[in-house]
Amino acid sequence: MASRTLSKQFARTYATKALKIGLIPGDGIGREVIPAGKQVLEALPSDLGLKFEFTELKAGFELFKQTGTALPDETVEVLQKSCDGALFGAVSSPTTKVEGYSSPIVALRKKLGLYANVRPVKSVEGIGRPVDMVIVRENTEDLYIKEEKLYEKDGQKVAEAIKRITERATTKIGAIALEIALQRQAIRELGGASLHSQPTLTVTHKSNVLSVSDGLFRETVRKLYDSNPAKYSGVQYKEQIVDSMVYRMFREPEIFDVVVAPNLYGDILSDGAAALVGSLGVVPSANVGDNFAIGEPCHGSAPDIEGKGIANPIATIRSTALMLEFMGHPEAASKIYAAVDANLKEDVIKTPDLGGKSSTQEVVADVIRRL
């Protein structure tokens, strides 16, 4: 089972009512893989007692080009007032500045208070190198606040960007990272398979250069860890400068358990870590706040394969399970993870990014069969 905290701070409890899930396909292959998440939810065993209602919502760069709006107010309002969770597909992000456009997923994270991006990266037993880590990425600040300016000095263009790290946001991300470390250990003690015998938190930073901003991130997480020795004494605390973190992650990925990082480093590390398990197409994530979670595959909109029916749905299916975990349904999530692992282990029905020839729908059908 991927890591997630079952503490009252994050879990939500639902009665027998149908869970309302917002579906936001976005751009490119997002429109091909988000239906996979819906199909898997509808195929969950009836003895779990879960029912779902779905609502299609709009966002994305294609929508911006059509309407001038990348994230309609209606989408945000429906998520806030009517949904229990959501799945987000992918966004086509332009590489050059487009006046008036900003990423809808970044905006959603801010508007819904989804301050943590949780990205489990785990290998399937017997396939490739052993990896079992969770990268917990701060989701609301750092360079992603997008406060940039361009001006001229001495006849030359100068571009500047503000990197913002706050004690408040860092405390929140440090707290959920520590909770995840504790929860992963609880699962191990119940017999869950793992590479790790002790929970470990690795704080990633570049405070040897950015002594003020990254220094505040590092110091804040350390202060939080030290503030409650009764609770966190079983967690091994480590720090790693981001460039050496990249080196060690590829050289010895098995040593990392829970990694917490500012927004930019977390983004880079989690995409890089996907190479350790074969493809971005198998790596899930969840954007998490205190009362809401959006499952989001780590891959992009992949315009090179859009419309070909060969996009890997595994990342979306795993993100669907991760969303269920943060909604308080670990049993349902575990069944999805087991079905996905069985598909990957058999190594027969797989999409081209993993060396196979299967279609998106063939993989979805195989996972559902294994449910």
UniProtKB/TrEMBL annotation:
EC annotation from Swiss-Prot or TrEMBL: 1.1.1.87
GO CC field: mitochondrion
Keyword NAD in record: yes
Gene3D superfamilies: Isopropylmalate Dehydrogenase (3.40.718.10)
Catalysed transformations (reactions): (2R,3S)-homoisocitrate + NAD(+) = 2-oxoadipate + CO2 + NADH
Amino-acid biosynthesis recorded as keyword: yes
Example GO molecular function: homoisocitrate dehydrogenase activity
Swiss-Prot/TrEMBL keywords: Amino-acid biosynthesis, Lysine biosynthesis, Magnesium, Metal-binding, NAD, Oxidoreductase, Phosphoprotein
Pathway where it operates: Amino-acid biosynthesis; L-lysine biosynthesis via AAA pathway; L-alpha-aminoadipate from 2-oxoglutarate: step 4/5
Cofactor requirements of the protein: Mg(2+)
InterPro entries in the cross-refs: IsoCit/isopropylmalate_DH_CS, IsoPropMal-DH-like_dom
All copies of domain Isopropylmalate dehydrogenase-like, residue ranges: 20-367
Pfam families named in the record: Iso_dh (PF00180)
GO biological process, one term: lysine biosynthetic process
Assigned protein family: Belongs to the isocitrate and isopropylmalate dehydrogenases family.
Protein name in UniProt: homoisocitrate dehydrogenase
